[in-house]
Design goal:
The protein has 201 residues and is mainly alpha-helical. Helices cover 64% and strands 5% of the residues.
């Protein structure tokens, strides 16, 4: 009798453990899915607002010297790039050890590179590679061309995340799919490629 009772207890314990484990796995997957959708929503919004901002670059003129960020598009751009850097760093953290987390970490680095390049300049091994875009108090023709090219690259990512059916970001895109979308961007915006993208002095 005691043996039967012991077997029943063992079976019940195993079933309870398996059920609990499945429940934890489900909750973990559900949380990751919520985090992914949250990330995509915010990333798409930042891409959209920054693309719109850059579409007016030919009309920035004197407004780039205003101290109030709400009317200074150049400062707004730097702020947006900083937010996208932080957002993608957080997105990489969401995925933890997932192989695709390196893609978002790379994207975060690309945004940091762009922000630092145009908003302060970059020095490597005591060599100044590029200067702050407003170092001379104005946006040159080459600097405007760079910003227009940046806008086009943002548009390309944004269109890849767009859902025609929902008329906004596609909430079902996976991190693996996203990593393919952003690879061209992260390969392009690197310190080693500053000259080719028009940032190197």
């Amino acid at each position: 009798m005691n043996r039967k009772r012991a077997i029943i207890i063992v079976i019940c314990s195993v079933l309870l453990f398996v059920t609990f484990g499945a429940g934890m796995k489900y909750n973990s997957r559900k949380k990751l899915d919520q985090d992914r959708k949250h990330y995509l929503n915010h990333f798409y919004f930042q891409l959209d607002t920054t693309t719109y901002l850059l579409s007016k670059v030919d009309k920035w003129e004197e407004s780039i010297h205003y101290t109030d960020i709400t009317v200074n598009p150049y400062r707004q751009l730097l702020s947006n790039l900083q937010e996208m850097e932080a957002l993608n760093k957080q997105g990489a953290w969401y995925m933890g050890s997932d192989d695709d987390s390196s893609s978002l970490a790379g994207l975060s680095e690309s945004f940091r590179l762009i922000k630092n390049s145009i908003g302060g300049g970059i020095t490597v091994n005591n060599q100044l590679l590029c200067v702050d875009f407003l170092d001379d108090g104005k946006l040159s023709e080459n600097e405007v061309s760079f910003l227009v090219s940046l806008k086009q690259d943002f548009e390309s990512i944004r269109s890849s995340l767009y859902s025609e059916e929902r008329k906004q970001e596609n909430p079902n895109i996976t991190f693996k799919e996203l990593s393919k979308v952003i690879k061209i961007f992260t390969d392009k915006y690197t310190v080693h490629n500053l000259h080719n993208i028009g940032l190197r002095n």
